[in-house]
Structure formats: structure tokens, C-alpha cells
Amino acid sequence: MNVYLYQHIIITILIITISLIIIIVCCYYFIIIITIIIVITIIIIIYYYYYVIIIIIIIIIIIIIIIIIIIIIIIIIIIIIIIIIIIIIIIILLLLLLLLLLYLLLLLLLLLLLLLLLLLLLLLLLLYYYYYYYYYIIIIILLLLLLLLLFIIIIIIIIIIIIIIIIIIIIIIIIIIIIIIIIIIIIIIIIIIIIIIIIIIIIIIIIIIIIIIIIIIIIIIIIIIIIIIIIIIIIIIIIIIIIIIIIIIILLLLLLLLLLLLLLLLLLLLLLLLLLLLLLLLLLLLLLLLLYYYYYYYYYYYYYYYYYYYYYYYYYYYYYYYYYYYYYYYYYYYYYYYYYYYYYYYYYYYYYYYYYYYYYYYYYYYYYYYYYYYYYYYYYYYYYYYYYYYYYYYIIILYYYYYYYYYYYYYYYYYYYYYYYYYYYYYYYYYIIINY
After folding, report:
1. CA pair distance 343, 133, nearest whole angstrom
2. Where on the phi/psi map is residue 213: left (φ > 0), alpha (ψ -120 to 50), or beta?
3. What is the DSSP letter of 132?
4. Interhelix angle for 53-129 vs 30-48, to 10°?
5. How far apart are CA 288 and CA 291, in angstroms?
6. Mean pLDDT over all residues of the chain?
7. Is the separation of the CB atoms in 247 and 177 below 8 Å?
8. Residue 26 — very low, low, confident or very high, per pLDDT cuts 50/70/90?
9. In angstroms, rounded to a whole number, what is the distance separating the alpha carbons of residues 423 and 417?
10. Which residues contact 216 (CB under 8 A, 6 or more apart)?
11. Given pLDDT bands bounded at 50, 70 and 90, which one contains residue 216?
12. What does the DSSP assignment read for 352-390?
């Protein structure tokens, strides 16, 4: 019986050894060979050692349950990681879409800025060629400069918002990388703990099997080693897959981080360009002020100086000249009128002359005596209003008869008595005052 038993044990060991050699040599058919070995071993055990079937089934069930638990835990962790990564990628895509919209808005504002600059240049040309309307053109240019400044401020605010969004994306990417590293460490720790638990369970089972039966220990150890190798290979494959996925995600995030850094550099460059543009606008404003100063104070002012001031002085001189003539004529007529109505209006003449003197006094203190004058005027309204209009009408008629003749003659008279006229006028005025 013992010889028969030893013979079967040797046959079983040979079968297992041949199976291991086949596994080592033909690793491509690893799963099929393992299955065949397990089936042959079970047949041998059932045929020769049927009393060990229950223990082997229990061991296999425990190992299968442990493997299923490990796989479920790993799958749950992978699903959680994938969900977190998808959510973060959606957030990053939304932020990138917001960045794209801000870039489009920035491009639109830059185009408007360019159009406003062209309009400013056009207005400067208009200011150069149509300097008569310099005031309106300068007002429009100043309004456009204010609008340009507003656009530049809006563009700078948009750039600052874009920079803040990029910084937020970079922080999110760094947090994702840290979370992935922490998850990898946790997975490795869990796998190590599970492997330790499996090894402890296997050691306990081996001890129990050794205690129960020593004969089949080699077969059971080989089966357990094969199962442990399978479990370790599965776990290593899963870990390698997870590590590859995480490395790919980290590389993609690093690539996105580099793109965002390039985008940040472009934004900084754009900000510098905007600052240069602002400096150019300030220089343009300074040039505009210089042009305004040049055209207005050097060209426009002196251009009209020869016309306006000359015309003004000429007009003033003409007015003065006409005033002398009229004044002289008026005094002359007044004396004539005075001598003509001497017996009738002697008292009135002195009163009127006093009133005339008072009128000049009223002229220098106009605001003070204005109401008094009206009161004085209405006080004498009923006495000389009709006579005043009659007198005024008489003056107009007289003036109408003598004006044209005297006016044309006056030029000759003026040039003829140019050196004597002023003196004579003041002398005449002095004579009037003395006479008064």
C-alpha cells in the first residue's frame, strides 16, 4: 500500500514539475496550462485523496473571494479617479472656453482701438488742412482719446481676468497632480496590506494543511504558489495600467500647464504692448496740444492779427472818426438850435445842457443811476414826449438832408484838417464847457 502510495506521489510530483516547465517555457499559453494543471491535480486528488477535497475547495473559495474583493476595490478606486479627472477636465475646458471668449473680446477691442487710432490720424489730418474748425476737431479728438483710454483700461482688466483664470487653472492642475500622487500612494499601501493579508491567510492555511495532511503538502503549496503568482501578476498588471494612465494624465496636465504658461507670457507681452500703446497715445495727445498751440497761437492768432486787429482798429478808428464828425455836427447843430430857439427855450436849453452833462455822468455810473434815470424820464414824459418825437423827427430830416453831402465831403475835410481837427475839437469842447 505504501509503495503504491509513494508511486502515485512521485507521479503527481512529476506531473506538476512537467507542468511548471511547460509554464516557464510556454508562457504564452499560461492560462490554459494553469487550467489543465489545476484540473489534473483535482482529478488526482479526487481519485486518490478524496478526503482532502473539502479543504482544497475551502482554500480555493477563500482565495477567490479575496481576489474578487481586491479587484472590486481597485475598480472602485479607478472609477473614482476617472470621475474626479473627468470633472476637473470639464472645469478646465470651461475655463479654457472662457479664456477663448475673453481673447475674442480682447481681439475685438484691439481692432476697435486700431480703428480709433486711424480715426485720430484722420482728424489730425483734418486739423492740419481745416484749421478753421480746430475747436470742434480738437473736441472730437479729445473725446476719442478718452474713449481710447477707456478701451485700454477695459483691455487691461480683461488681461488681468485672463491671468487670474490661468493662475486658477495652474493651481487646479497642481492640486490634481498632488491628489493623483496621494491616490497612487494609497493604492500601493492598500495593495501591500492586501498582499500581506493574503500571505498571512495562506500561511495559516498551509499550517492547517500541514497539520491535517502532510502527504499532499507539496501539491497544495504548489497550487497556492501558482494562485499567489496569478494574484500578484494581476495586481502588478492593474498597478502598471493605473500608473500608465496616471503618467499620461500628468503628462497631459504638464503640457496644458506649459501651454498656459506660454499663454501667460503672451498676455504679459500684450500688456507691455498696450502700455507702449498708451505711451504712444500720450505722445499723440502731447503732439496734438503742440499742434493746437502752434496753429492757434502762432498761425491762427497771427494770421488774424493782421486782419482782425487791423480791422478792429480800423473799425474803431472809423467809429471814432465818425463819432467825431457826428459829435461835432451835433454840437454845431445844438448851438444852432440853441441860438435859433434862444428866446423860447432859454430855460429849457440850460436844463437840457445840464441833462446832457448829467447823461455823461450817468454813463460812467450806469448801473447806479439807471433806475433813477427811468424815474426821471417818466417824470418828464408828459411834458416833452411829443416835442421829443417831433424834435427827433426834425433831426432825422435835417440829418437826411445834410448827411450824404457832409459825409462825402467829410473825407476831404478830414484829410485837409487832419492836424487841426483834434485840437479844434478839444478846444471846442473846452469852449462848450466854458460856455456852460
Report:
1. 64
2. beta
3. G
4. 160
5. 5
6. 60
7. no
8. low
9. 10
10. 45, 49, 52, 209
11. low
12. HHHHHHHHHHHHHTHHHHHHHHHHHHHHTHHHHHHHHHH
